[in-house]
Amino acid sequence: MTSRKVIMIEAHKIARGLVGFTGDYNLALSQALKEIWKKDRLGKQIYTGPSYVWDKDGSLGVPEWVIKRNLNDFGYESIMQALIKIEVERKSEKAALLNFKTDFGDFKVWSPKSVLRGYRRN
After folding, report:
1. What is the pLDDT of residues 60-85, one digit of tens each?
2. What are the start-end ranges of the E strands in 1-122?
3. Which of 5, 37, 40, 81 has the greatest number of C-beta atoms within 10 Å?
4. Phi, psi at 107, each rounded to 5°
């Protein structure tokens, strides 16, 4: 059973997207809550995990929280808006030094290998 707090947070996220179609936020929230409760009753997991930033070719995904935690606002916004490529510059046993190439310069961040998607351990 999912907590009511998580259900309400997810319902508001969905409702913000639906309000453009319905024109009424209360109606959109009502529909979103119906869908969330239906998923919860059927035992389907409501995904509340992290969002990923993917390389242009889709080969490497890095969670947004890694970028937010290690860079200032300028670096985070640069990566989100003008990412060109993600390269693995160095690696240790459990972490990788990632170089984010953007139109605004390069940003380097250490990330745990366990949270990366599409990372090859060669």
Report:
1. 889 989 999 999 999 999 998 999 99
2. 52-54, 61-63, 83-91, 95-102, 105-112
3. 40
4. -130, 130
